[in-house]
Structure formats: C-alpha cells, structure tokens
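Reply to dn_fold:

You asked what the input looked like. This is it:
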Amino acid sequence: MPSVSRKLIVPDMVRVHRYQSSPELGPALLFFSGGSALNKISRCLKRYTHHSIHMVTPFDSGGSSAKLRLAFNMPAVGDLRSRIMALADETVLGQPDVYQLFSYRLSHEVSSASLLQELESLVDGEHPLMANIVAPMKVLIQTQLSRLQKKLPDGFDLRGASVGNLIIAGGYLNNQELLDPIVFLFSRLVETLGQVTTIIDEGYHLGVTLANGKQVIGQHLITGKEVEPLDSPIRNIWLNDGVSTYTPVSPTLPKDRADQIAEAALICYPPGSFFTSIVANLLVEGVSGAIVKNLNPKIYLPNLGDDPEQQGWGVMDRVRYLISMLLGDEPESNAQSRVLDWLLLDDTYDYGDLDEGLLESWGVQVVKTPLVTSKPDRYDEQLVVHALLSFV
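and this is what came back:
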C-alpha cells in the first residue's frame, strides 16, 4: 500500500503554513546527499522545520578536502561543513561572525609563508575574523586550529583552504580521530537548525566500473568537474579502501544512523550527482534495511540539466537502479519491500522518456507539481520545500 493514505495535495499550503508557524515542531525529513546541490533547499527548509536530517557522503577526493585527507587519512569534511553552514541559524546574535569565519577561504595568491602566518593569527585569536567572536566559542575554535597547526606536515599546501574545514580537521585530530564529537560541537557553535552527519565516519573512496570495462577510483575523477568527464557511462559503483588499487569494502551502518533512517517522517533522494552524492550513501551495509523498515513516504526528486557522471542514465534507468541496488532484486520487488514510493517532478520540465505504467508496476507513483520558475535548469527551493512538506 502507498505510504500516504490520506488524499495527497501538492502543494498542501495548510500543512506548509502550519510548519512555518512552528518550525521547532517540524517533521524529520531525511536526505541522502553530498555536495552543494541541496544547500539552497536546506537554507529554505530551516524556516519550516528544525529537525531535518542530512546524511552526507565523506568520500570526496577533490578540492581542499583532498589535501586534508592525504595528510591525515581522514574522511572528507567539505560537504559536511557546507551543509552545516546552510542550516546555521544566521539570526542569532554574534552568529554572522562565526558564519563568516567558517566560510572563509585562505588565498590562492600569496606565499606559503604568508598563509602560515595567517593560520598563526587565527590560532592566536588575532585575525580580524576572530575579533568579534567571544568565549567560549573563540577558545574552542582556537583549540581545534592549534591542534591542526601542530599536526600539519611540512610543506602542506594551505592555498584555498577552507577555515571551516581546518577547524573540523583539528577537532577530528583532537577527538581520537572521530568526526561525531567535532560535528556536534561545530553544529552547536553555529546553532544548526537541523542535524548533519556523515553516513559513516571511515575515510573510504568511491570507485566505478564503466560500460567499456574500465575502473576509475576517486570521486574527483568521476564527477567530471575537476577533470574531463568520463568517456563511457557508469555501470556500477562501490566503496574502496584507498585510491591506488581495487580494494572493495562493505562498511556497516552505525546503529544511530540506522535508527534515524528507520524513524524519519520522510526519506528523500534529492537533487545532486546521482552516483557520487546520492547512491554513494546507499552503498553502506544496513542502509537498505533501515529504509525498508520505515513506512513513511520515500521520494526521489531527480536532477535537472546535464550531470557529467549521469551520461546514458535517463530517469527510468535511475529509478530502476536505485530500487535494484537497495533491494538486490528486480524493481518489481519494491511493491512489497518499499524503498521508493514517489517520483516528484516539475509539471512542465522535460525529464525524457517516462513510463508511468511501468513505474506503477514497480510500486512508484508520479506526482507532478510546479517546482521550476525563472531558471529552467534549477529547482525553486521554496516550491521544492513546500512540495516535500505536503507529504508529511
């Protein structure tokens, strides 16, 4: 049976206004995501609920996170930081200063010596961005940065480093190489209106097998954003221990994450890179079982526009893959063990071939509603939030 038994109205503005009037009592909408695609939607969502849950992939191997991963053999923290900042309460007195510090990046244009001096000024609390941050926040930030500074290997490249990433990395090193304690602290510092966590804390990497048989290991080589796009469609994806050799791993989902998934008011597979942001979270052993246990609505909101890693994958292909990888069976099995209930689409956008009859045989219903306004390849975040809230 479908997870929503009442008459579904999308958007249901009665429900939307109810949540907007009391966001502190809002529902626990859970998102499997990574990257920045969901950040604007998250900034809008915090006006309606303070209980959203964001399970972010820690497998990125590009950008400034890559330097920290290489230096300390740690999970990627860039996507984690950016989602925390998207959910930060920017209305609290003093928060803009903390927000600005955590969002600040060191220059690409100055010498290594100058960057080390700037880091020293942050550690000492003398940096202009630290001036208006008061204790205990300032002391806590200095403590994490001091730990990082002492552990930095000789020659570490600080160009373009996110100070927020450096603070989290320092906290990771300062807390027995565990992410959860520093994520909790970081979230408290910026008064996050929601919960952000990695799907697991281990520092694994992503690998894909292409249609031409080639294997590619390392997210930065897969997304088509830092290097040339893949020359063949992806056929399979896995978690790998390291980036040098094929060493597949099957880590287990921690119990607290399993409980959150099983108890969420709604589960969303949101816009974002299909393989490296969405599916990557689902590779962890135990995720599918927790999703099946949850009897509440499960929604897939596909990407708009062209995603380099998604070449050759239409919406129907992605729905089939999503169901089959979670259930280990043909998509028809979703009708009994549900991992997906609804395909949420804009009512005018061309998503390509769509077989609603076949989707229905898989146990997936299509809901079409206005989700795109002025920019044809980008969702309107408020319309998306209104639509999602209408299901709960």
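The mean pLDDT is 93.
Hope that clears it up.
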